[in-house]
Amino acid sequence: MERRELAAWLRLQLTPGLGSAAQRRLLAALGTPEQILAAPPAAHRSVLTPAVAAALAQEPPGLAELLDRSWNWLQASPRRQLLSLGDARYPASLLQTADPPPLLYAEGQLDWLHVPALAIVGSRRPTAQGRDTARELAHDLAEAGLCIVSGLALGIDGAAHEGALQGGGGTIAVLGTGLDRLYPPTHRALGLRIAEQGLLLSEYPPGTPPLPAHFPRRNRIIAGLSQGCLVVEAALQSGSLITARLAAEAGREVFAVPGSIHAAQSRGCHALLREGAKLVETALDVLEELHPTRPRPPRGPAARATPLVEPASPAPQLPPTLEAVLAAMGHDPVSLDALQARGGWPTGELNALLLELELAGAVARLPGSLFQRRAQG
């Protein structure tokens, strides 16, 4: 994209009242952004309200600064690209949605935009078991040929990206900030890895801070890029349910992982299942509906459901006393008092056993003084 074309796009985006839908109407009626700006005011008024048409006639404040910042960001690396609606590289799946963004800033490997994709989303505060489940499913599905799409958020998003990278596949992180403002800061290193092995995307120009309104809007891009949306742990008010709803409205498949009836993080998934989402226990449950162009036999959890691949190596054997605690714990979050009632251990002894299990990675400590068995335990 030439600098003057970028300037025209940015002027459209900075014009007050000129949202993405109005920009698409202008493009359809008048042509390229440069042609739009060169058109007479009467042409603008034929498409826009008088107030927005008048705003378009004025150069918006901050345009020169934003143009310099965006142009310098693009020129700093050949891996950085800007895709407009008319670009042949713009993802076709996103064009088919109700509100495709006029511009997409990208850093990484654009080829991942044209690989069958699955969104994996969920709670920012998952249980340890939920985090493990997201990572394992993403690993197996990426290994089977699906690109994993998520939002780089804490919790399930980050675990899904990690799993996809560990599975040797691709992952796309859709940000609610500019690509120079990786958010949250604790995922900066993960974001840089995704830029190298996968793809970072945002509709927001460089320098855009993490404004709360941006994150719900980026969910439509996550849903639109994907053939399906898998929710792993979500409360009833979770933003992940917005992504799932957008996916369903776009005609995509919706999947959900069931959880404990006692866990608030499972209630959103259970609501989706009641509404017709497909229940997922292994990667094969997803692969039965979505058919990657480069299928490979999945490993990990899916291997336990099919004889086509070797079973996963068994977990290291724990001492009988620790196995007894795990057996009493089950797979739901449980309090110390409940464990004592089930097994009769003195408080000091049980605390010591739980600490050993934590150090072995078999048990996680949850908020509210609860404990939960992890998948590998």
From TrEMBL:
Instruction: Indicate the segments annotated as coiled coil, or none if absent.
Output: none
**Span of the signal peptide:** none
Ranges where the Smf/DprA SLOG domain occurs: 82-290
Q: Which GO terms describe its biological process?
A: DNA-mediated transformation
Disordered: where is this region? 291-316
Q: Which residues form the DprA winged helix domain?
A: 310-368
Record family assignment: Belongs to the DprA/Smf family.
Q: What is this protein called?
A: DNA protecting protein DprA
